[in-house]
Each structure stands twice: as structure tokens, then as C-alpha cells.
Amino acid sequence: QAPESFPPLRNEAAVRILRGRMKGIQGHCNSCYMDAALFSLFSCTSVLDSMLFKPFPLCDRNVQSILRDEIVNPLRKSGFVSARSMMHLREQLTEKGRCSSFTNAEKDPEEFLNLIMHQILGIEPLLRLQSGGRKEQDCYCYQIFMDKQEDLVVPDVQQLVEHSFLSSNLKLVEIPSCFIIQMPRFGKEYKMFSKIIPSLELDITDLLLDSPRECCLCGDVATLECS
């Protein structure tokens, strides 16, 4: 029998199903990096639902079914995923990734995404970046790196992405189908920002390589860019 499929939660349904006690993905044994990543990727958006259904060339169908039937569908149906289901996935990642610490240690979200998207499901990279006119690089997510900015006390995501791209001299080679962004953090002892305001829309016009843009002085197509 084909498993049930539930669409991502939107608007009033998202508030009704996801708000309250015993909602979200239950944490256990340093799973917060994975809980937050999966909640962000699947609870309210379908942009990566191909991960759940599409038979990619290198796809591990067992991991795919656990992700779909034990995590994403329960999250969208009832708003809750148990730590037991998450541990089932973590045990599979430990086996496939040849790394025993996936079941008990805190990991970097990028390491988790690279493992499940590249090695286990065989998905093509989501982002193409170019740094300073050099060789292009492919990746699955972008982690914000930046120096402390005194004028950014409570920044939004738009400001952080622009500052990070500027300081690293980066450009997007093309418009990404999905732009996964990892916020800046420095472990348990130091946080660069106590709060970050989510930008509900992200303007990537100035981040695109060779994208035609308007001159801020005359209004014609710009030929020069001042950082």
C-alpha cells in the first residue's frame, strides 16, 4: 500500500497544528542541529519534497522512506515527531556515513545536509557560487560568515546575507531553486546576535553574477558596481 502523503502546512493550519506543547521535533542526545534543519526544510514548504519521493540515481530508499513516513508526514499531519523516529534516521545516517557520532554528538548542520543530500540521496547541488572571479563551486547550503558589525544589533536575514557575500567577495552564478542559509553562531559560549529577524522575502538581485541592474544615479543599465 502506498504511504500517505501530506502537503506542507500553510497559514492558519500551520499555526493550529504547530503551536503549543509537544509540537515540533522532539530533541534527544544533541539532535537539535538535525531537528531544526528538517523542521525548516519540510514543515511549511514543498521546495525539497523531491527528496521524499524522487528515485535519484544514488538514492537509498530506506533512508528516504524513514524521512518521508516517520518524520515529514507525521510533522505535517499532527505537528509532532518523536525522538524515536529521529533516532531511527540517525542510526541509518551513522551506518551510511561511517560515523558513529551521528547518534549522540552535536554536529554541524552542513555536515548533515551534505551526507543526506549528496551521499545518501544523490541530489545535485542546490547552489553555484563564485568567489572573486575564480572557479565556481557547488554546494547544498550557505553558512553566513562575517565580522562583528557594531551597527547590526538585531539584524534581519537580508542584511546578514548581503554583508556575508560582500565580505567574502561572493556571487551567485544563477538563481538557486532552493537557498538554504545557515545563520552565524559560535557554540554555547558566544552568540554574535541575540536575535535575528527572519526576512519573509529575500532579494538576491545584488548577489547575482552578471545580473543586469539599474544605475542608482541615471536609471540606465549599470556598467559599474561599487561595493
UniProtKB/TrEMBL annotation:
Keyword Nucleotide-binding: no
Keyword Hydrolase: yes
Coiled coil: none
Pfam families in alphabetical order: UCH (PF00443)
Annotated compartments: Cytoplasm, Cytoskeleton, Spindle
Keywords: Cytoplasm, Hydrolase, Microtubule
GO molecular function: cysteine-type deubiquitinase activity
GO biological process, one term: protein deubiquitination
InterPro entries: Papain-like_cys_pep_sf, Peptidase_C19_UCH, USP_CS
Residue ranges constituting the Peptidase C19 ubiquitin carboxyl-terminal hydrolase domain according to the UniProt record: 24-204
Listed SUPFAM superfamilies: Cysteine proteinases (SSF54001)
PANTHER family tied to this protein: 40S RIBOSOMAL PROTEIN S3A
Name of the protein: CYLD hydrolase
Taxonomic source organism: Centropus bengalensis (lesser coucal)
Gene name in the database record: Cyld
